[in-house]
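Anyone opening a protein record will find just a pair of labelled lines. A complete record is shown below as an example.
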Amino acid sequence: MNKVKKAQWVAALRSGKYQQARGILCSVRFSKRSYCCLGVLSDLAVADGVGQWLKLDPEYLSYSIDGTESNSVSGYYADTIQVWAGTRNEFSDDEAETAISFSYIKDGERLRQAESLADLNDGGFTFDQIADLIDYFL
């Protein structure tokens, strides 16, 4: 992962600026946004001029690289963001390169395994816990 983007992401997750959501990149309720951990990364990309948020539904925003609904996502982070953040090789179609997974082992016994950061976010990990994992493992 790009070291500058990683530092920005970890800082944003720890900042308290972002309310945490589960199951979607960006939720909108009562005019307040909340984000999953990958939504925070997406928001940093938007702030850096990579794509934009679209309101296609009253309760969530979708990320779009070009402002069109046909090129938008709401439940996972887009390939463009993966390339921007350095978590995916822009010339690869390998799905394995898009997954960031962790295993937790204590005293030789696997405590928990998640398939992705989204799983950790949706499974109840806080932004601070996710930031610690990103900081340590990526």
Remarks:
- DSSP finds five helices and seven strands in the chain.
- The chain has a mean pLDDT of 82.
- The two ends are 6 Å apart (CA to CA).
- Residues 28 and 57 are 9 Å apart (CA to CA).
